[in-house]
Amino acid sequence: MLKKTITYTDCNDVERTEDFYFNLSKAEVIEMELTTTGGMTKVIDKIISTQDTPALFRIFKDLILKSYGEKSLDGKRFIKSEELSEAFSQTEAYSELLTELVSDADKASEFVNAIIPKVDGKQAKALPNN
């Protein structure tokens, strides 16, 4: 799970600094891998190697919105919904994060590595694309 502190200016022209949370579960990563022709990892590698900026933008937008959520008060759940993602996408914090990821390859790599859970070798080999 990634806790990302983002400073942005809100609609009332007030500068804010807030913490936002991003995470993909193992089940979500497996679903993304298995429902993407050729596997999500290979698709991303191809997009990067061909420098397909529009496709890269769409992938980062999708990753941000799929991974955004809020921790439950008891810490047992990471709550995600279309409503929460849409609300986040309407903030300048989202704009700041998206701009950072598409303009800085190191920050993009850090973000992706932080939101994707670690999968052990046995689990990785069980995936059809490996």
Q: What does this entry look like structurally?
A:
The protein has 130 residues and is an alpha+beta fold. Helices cover 55% and strands 17% of the residues. The protein has helices at 26-34, 40-50, 53-67, 82-89, 92-103, 105-115, 121-126; strands spanning 2-9, 15-22, 68-71, 78-79. Helix 3 packs across helix 5 (92-103) and helix 5 (92-103) crosses helix 6.
Which helices and strands occur, and which strands form pairs?
Elements: E1 2-9, E2 15-22, H1 26-34, H2 40-50, H3 53-67, E3 68-71, E4 78-79, H4 82-89, H5 92-103, H6 105-115, H7 121-126
Antiparallel strand pairs: 1-2, 2-3, 3-4
Name the overall outline.
globular
What fraction, in percent, of the residue positions are helical?
A: 55-70%
Instruction: State the separation between the terminal residues, measured CA to CA.
Output: 24 Å
In DSSP terms (H or I, runs of 4 or more residues), the helix count works out at 7
* Radius of gyration of CA atoms, rounded to a whole number: 16 Å
- Strand order of the biggest β-sheet: 1-2-3-4
Mean pLDDT: 87
**What is the N-to-C succession of helices and strands?**
EEHHHEEHHHH
The parts where pLDDT drops under 50 for at least 5 residues are 121-125
Please report the total strand number as a whole number: 4
